[in-house]
Amino acid sequence: MQVFIDIYAAVVTELICEWLLGRRIIPFDQFPDILVQALPQPLIPYLHDA
What we know:
By secondary structure, this protein is mostly helical. The chain contains three helices and no strands. The chain has one domain (2-42). The longest helix has 19 residues, at 2-20. The chain is flat. It starts with a helix and ends with a helix.
């Protein structure tokens, strides 16, 4: 389980940094949905709708 958390946290952090630096053009209102859709299956029961 920890490996899924580590990977998701690393990817989300990188995506947020790229977005803030303007390297990823993602509308602000779509950003949360993208993060939820990217959740690995094993983490969904713990993080989705928490």
